[in-house]
Amino acid sequence: MHRYDLISCHDCGVLHSRRPVRPREKARCVRCRSVMYRGIHSDASRMAAITLAALIVFVIAQCFPIVELDVNGNASRATLLGSIIVLWQGHMPLVAAAVFMFTVLLPAVELLSLLHVTLALAGGHKPKSFNLLLYAIHLARRWGMTEVLMIGILITIVKMTSLATVVLEPGLFAFAALTLMLAIVVSFDPKMLWNLGDALTPQPDVPPPVPQAALSCHVCGLVSADNGARRQDCPRCHARLHHRHPDSLGRTWALLVAAAILYIPANLLPVMYTHSLFGLEDDTIISGVLYFWDSGSPALAAIIFIASIVVPLLKLAALSLLAWTAQRRSRWRPLQRTVLYRMVEFVGRWSMLDIFVITLTVALVRFQTLATITAGPGALAFCAVVVLTMLASMQFDPRLIWDPVPPNGEKHA
């Protein structure tokens, strides 16, 4: 038995009856005030058109140079894919693979999958791989970082203006347009697309009663009755159902400890080496912040300092607090702790900002006898810290915050 008209809050597990909301309106949980879904235009044809336009701009952004440097007649151009290749050839394959995944592969997977699904829904049928495609969108969206890359490009351009003549190329404007278009694409909630697919399949006129014990699918959002079996799969998308994420706290602690250990070398080891006529210089994250501060760009220095030093440290502290209080089954300020968890999830990807700046800088500053920049071991450690803290926030189940709090008449999944 399952219910298509029920929705479970992602953060506290309270069951709600799904109600239609108009575009730009939000449906919030009555208990923790989390936004469960937003009202948007659910026209599949419109979604397909916007997605297709975003995909075209995405291809243009990948193919054209982003920026060009000119030093005394010596020119150097950088595309995103070219920058990743330079990073790979510079003995940083893991960092290059991470940048490729976050900025090229996963955004492409999201756009292609979304285009296939929306075109099929606009044609009045569900594609054969409907569940797989929506699951791919669900995963790709959590790790895509195009908007962070755009800020990294702008910081790199400002940094390069003091070294050479900077020429803006078509790829820069394509990435700017892509960032704006993806902001619209992100509003197409995969769970809403599942509901559009269900509308093409006849459903019972009278919905089944609310189950006494319910399980909510973390992928498609379908609420199903808990039949007590050791293994239970979602009847819609076939994902494994769990009352709470298995070993949530243990996995969160393990990832946090690993990230905390790597945070020290990430800040102490060089992230870049500069080979020039004046010898070899190494740059750490701190020295990069000081460079922008001393060169008259305090705003950029503040952005890098917050994104690369403060945010990872605060994420470690915040996730440790959440895991510790959940492990103690504390009832202390559950609403505030839920807001803290949402903030950690939101800012997680922005710590990759410094890695994207390094990627573009390494590709641009390659003037052979004049100067060459290569990535250092600090970049690998820092990239690992970002990935580990993001994984830790994904492993933490926020419903553990509310489990010790007595219900106020609500039913929970």
Secondary-structure topology with pairs:
Blueprint: E1 2-3, E2 6-8, E3 15-17, E4 26-28, E5 35-38, H1 44-63, E6 67-71, E7 74-78, H2 80-89, H3 93-122, H4 130-143, H5 146-160, E8 165-168, H6 170-185, H7 190-199, E9 214-216, E10 223-225, H8 248-268, E11 272-276, E12 279-283, H9 285-294, H10 298-327, H11 334-347, H12 353-364, E13 371-375, H13 377-395, H14 399-402
Structure report:
The protein is α+β, with helices and mostly antiparallel strands. The chain is 54% helix and 12% strand. The chain has helices at residues 44-63, 80-89, 93-122, 130-143, 146-160, 170-185, 190-199, 248-268, 285-294, 298-327, 334-347, 353-364, 377-395, 399-402; strands at 2-3, 6-8, 15-17, 26-28, 35-38, 67-71, 74-78, 165-168, 214-216, 223-225, 272-276, 279-283, 371-375. Helix 8 packs antiparallel against helix 10 (298-327), helix 8 runs antiparallel to helix 13 (377-395) and helix 10 packs across helix 13 (377-395).
